[in-house]
Amino acid sequence: MKHSTVALLFSFVLTSAFAQTNTDDVTGVRQACFNYIDTFYKADTTLAYQSVHPTLQKRGFAFEQKTGSYSKQLEMPFPALIRLAKVWNKEGKRANSDSPRQVDVFEVADKTAMAKVTAVWGIDYLHLIKENDHWMIVNVLWQSPPKSLQVIK
């Protein structure tokens, strides 16, 4: 009886610790994603330095109104992201408090995570890594707002 009580208590402690860590990780991933959006919305590069890894690989496709088609694949390393963030919404004309600002976290493991961001510029799929107990975005695949989106469950 004594052994089963100890085993049950130990199991409860482990489960509680795992649940707390998992909740903290989801919160950390979500915060990194919101920092990514706000880097551009607020023209605040300090948020990028907090949540985007310096080895960032960002690739995507912009819809060009003039041609009615998407651009070729565009690439943006971390230094280019910083340069763009400084000027993209500097005057507050591209994004405001009514602009889309949505984060959907798909999966969080102990060292990796995946999320989707919906913002005024379109959708971004993010891969994150956990370094020194801190979540950082390392890969971004994006496109302008899609004409259609198939959600497969």
Automatic annotation (TrEMBL):
Keyword Transcription regulation: no
Signal peptide: 1-19
Keyword annotations from UniProtKB, A to Z: Signal
SUPFAM superfamilies attached to this UniProt entry: NTF2-like (SSF54427)
UniProt protein name: Nuclear transport factor 2 family protein
Classification of source organism: Bacteria, Pseudomonadati, Bacteroidota, Cytophagia, Cytophagales
